């Protein structure tokens, strides 16, 4: 019997959405729950038949959900795939970088920047990742964003924000 890994739930989510978006209480420990989830993620991400950019009802991809739940391992695994769309926005216009800035996860912000996450994308409300980091008081994220770009891009980022 074959199960379709791209089958959608009532929320429009696939198995990869659920696995990537699952928030573990402590991802540093290697208990059976963490090991099982990581094994499932590896299996799904390595399957060429799995749509790693599938969108749910809210327009979220598995990468968006992994950023929302601060699931570093899932973000890392998804970004290792050439097919992943780093700047795919949800229905609100938020990219994974917007979401990571809101969640105050500096490690994930760094990963997204290293994988060419776009500093200048704006949400449907005209907010850049820098705007959201400032709005939510994410001082370290603001510093990370500003220090990760050229002087010219930094000026442009401040002008846009």
What is the secondary structure topology, with strand pairs?
Elements: H1 15-20, H2 32-46, H3 62-68, H4 72-79, H5 96-103, H6 106-114, H7 129-135, H8 139-147, H9 151-160
Q: What report would you give on this structure?
A:
The chain has 161 residues and is mostly helical. It has 2 domains: 85 residues, Serine Threonine Protein Phosphatase 5, Tetratricopeptide repeat, CATH 1.25.40; 75 residues, Ankyrin repeat-containing domain (Serine Threonine Protein Phosphatase 5, Tetratricopeptide repeat, Alpha Horseshoe). 49% of the residues lie in helices and 0% in strands. It is built from 9 helices and no strands. α7 packs antiparallel against α8. It is globular, with a radius of gyration of 16 Å. The N and C termini lie far apart (52 Å). The mean pLDDT is 86.
Short description:
With 161 residues, the chain is an all-alpha fold. Helices cover 49% and strands 0% of the residues.
Large-scale geometry: globular
Please state the CA-atom Rg, rounded to the nearest Å.
16 Å
Q: How helix-rich are the residues, as a percent range? A: 40-55%
Classification by helices and strands = mainly alpha
Number of domains: 2
Beta-strand fraction estimate: under 5%
CATH class of the largest domain: Mainly Alpha
| Number of strand elements | 0
Mean pLDDT, all residues? 86
- CATH-level-4 superfamily name of the largest domain: Ankyrin repeat-containing domain
Ranges with pLDDT <50 over ≥5 residues?
none
């Amino acid at each position: 019997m074959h199960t379709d890994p791209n089958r959608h739930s009532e929320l429009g989510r696939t198995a990869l959405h659920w696995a990537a978006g699952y928030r573990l209480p402590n991802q540093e420990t290697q208990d059976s729950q963490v090991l099982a989830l990581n094994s499932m993620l590896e299996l799904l991400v390595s399957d060429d038949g799995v749509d790693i950019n599938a969108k749910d009802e809210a327009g979220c991809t598995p990468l968006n959900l992994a950023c929302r739940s601060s699931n570093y391992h899932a973000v890392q695994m998804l970004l290792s795939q050439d097919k992943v769309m780093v700047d795919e926005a949800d229905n609100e216009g938020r990219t994974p970088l917007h979401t990571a800035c809101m969640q105050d996860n500096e490690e994930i912000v760094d990963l997204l920047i290293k994988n060419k996450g776009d500093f200048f994308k704006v949400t449907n409300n005209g907010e850049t990742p820098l705007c959201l980091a400032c709005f939510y008081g994410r001082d370290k994220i603001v510093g990370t964003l500003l220090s990760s770009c050229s002087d010219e891009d930094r000026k442009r980022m401040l002008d846009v924000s």
